[in-house]
Design goal:
By secondary structure, this protein is an all-alpha fold. It has one domain: TerB-like (Orthogonal Bundle). About 60% of the residues lie in helices and about 0% in strands. The protein has 8 helices and no strands. The longest helix has 16 residues. The chain is globular. About 25% of the residues are buried.
Length: about 160
Amino acid sequence: MGLFDSFKNKSDPINQKQAFIASLIYMIGADGVVEDEEVAQLIGAIAQFPDRNDIFNAALKYTRKNSPTQFLSEVKDLLSDTQKMTILVNLADSLTSDGDADPSEQRLFEQFLHAWDISEERFRPFFEVIAMKNDRTVFINQNDSRNTHTHRVSLSKG
């Protein structure tokens, strides 16, 4: 045992609200570039909490000390299925908000799905709605085939 071993990997336990914000922090940092849209997502997500500064600071401190893998393992049993799905919906919104899902963000998202035993098939309908929400090309390109009067939007079954 080394002299400083007692200080390694020592972090305060994380709660559900901190886990929510930590998830977003991990996703924002996944590609090494912090986009304005991602920051806006984080600000919007945290704004509803009266103790938002404490939550943010604790989540940020946690993410600096723990890898996403450690985090996912630690919160797997802490979070309810609804909380996990809420986090995943917010992560998907964050990673598609700038119009580009970087491969590193995609890998991290898949890591969340796998760690929490949530299949892509189950999550697909949620993702389709979020992708549509963040895709403004139907307003930019009037000739987009999705703008025809015969095109109908529907969800896949998950």
